[in-house]
Amino acid sequence: MTQPTHQPVHDPDAQPKGQPTGPVPPGASDERSLGEIVGDVTNDLTTLIKQEMDLAKVEMKEEFAKAGKGAGLLGGAGLAGYFTLLFLTLTLMFLLDNWMPLEVAALIATAVWAIVAGVLALTGRKALKESNPQLPKTQQTLKEDAQWARAQKS
């Protein structure tokens, strides 16, 4: 019976002994080959791009939530506007048909729906104005990344 030979497992992320694991300070010698340096920079840029995409996704979710709330409120304002017209029509119909206190009740209902429509419309408009689709955090980190990349280049 033969004994299995034990092969060492190769870890592609493992650094050879004696090699720097982080940025090399100015004035220090870097013993890595040009290919290794380019590979490291490529890996760093890939990681950076993934992180930027994740940040953009998070910011977009936040902004879409704000815009969705404003759109929902405007939808509510539209429904309230519909009821305003419905009750106004009923009020005018009852007013013309018979001169009884029922019309006063219908007019009060119409006024209430008009107030609701106005409040919802103003609140929805304000919520839409507050949403910021420009992604300020992502823009700032992209500027920082560009500065970092220029520093790596020189």
TrEMBL record:
Superkingdom, natural source: Bacteria
Coiled coil, from the record: none
InterPro entries: Phage_holin_3_6 (IPR009937)
Chain intervals with Polar residues compositional bias: 132-141
UniProt entry keywords in alphabetical sequence: Membrane, Transmembrane, Transmembrane helix
Transmembrane feature ranges: 70-96, 102-122
UniProt region (Disordered), positions on chain: 1-33, 132-154
Protein name as catalogued: Phage holin family protein
Organism field: Nocardioides abyssi
